[in-house]
Amino acid sequence: MDNRLPFYMTHPMPLLYDDERMMRRDLDYMKSIYPKAAKQLLPYVEEECDRMEYDGSMMYDEFPDQLQLRMMCRRIFSRMEEEEEEEAGEWLMELVQVMTYHELCQRRCEYRNCRRRFY
C-alpha cells in the first residue's frame, strides 16, 4: 500500500471561520457577565439594531448621522421606560448610548469582514 498523503493534506489550512467563531464566543461571554441594568437593556438595543440592519442603512455609512443615532437611542430609551416599572435616570440614557454605539460598531465590523470575503 502507498502510505503517502495527498498534497492538500500535508499543509493543513487554518479554518476560515474559526477566528470569527472565537470572537463571537468571546463577545457572547462578555455580554453574559454584564451588570443587571445592562442585561435588561441589551434586548432593546439588539432589537433596534436588528431593525436598522439592512443594505443601505445609515448604520453602515462611513460617518453615521449623529442626529439619527441620538433618535435611535431615544427610541430604545422610550421603549424601555414603557416596559420597565423602575424610574430611569439620565445615567440610563448614557448607558443606552454607549451600548448602542458598541453594538453598531460590532455589526459594522462584521458587515465589513463579510463583504471583504466575497470580493
Question: Could you describe the 3D structure shown?
Answer:
The chain has 5 helices and no strands. It has about 120 residues and is mainly alpha-helical. Helix 3 packs across helix 5. The N and C termini lie far apart (about 45 Å).
Order of helices and strands: HHHHH
> Cα distance, first to last residue?
43 Å
Which word captures the global form?
elongated
Q: How many E-type strands?
A: 0
| Structural category | mainly alpha
Task: Please describe the structure with a list of short key phrases separated by commas or semicolons.
0% strand; 119 residues; 5 helices; mainly alpha; single chain; elongated
Summarize the structure.
The protein is an all-alpha fold and 119 residues long. It contains five helices and no strands. α3 (36-52) packs across α4 and α4 crosses α5 (90-118).
Question: How are the SSEs ordered, and which strands pair?
Answer:
Layout: H1 7-10, H2 18-32, H3 36-52, H4 66-83, H5 90-118
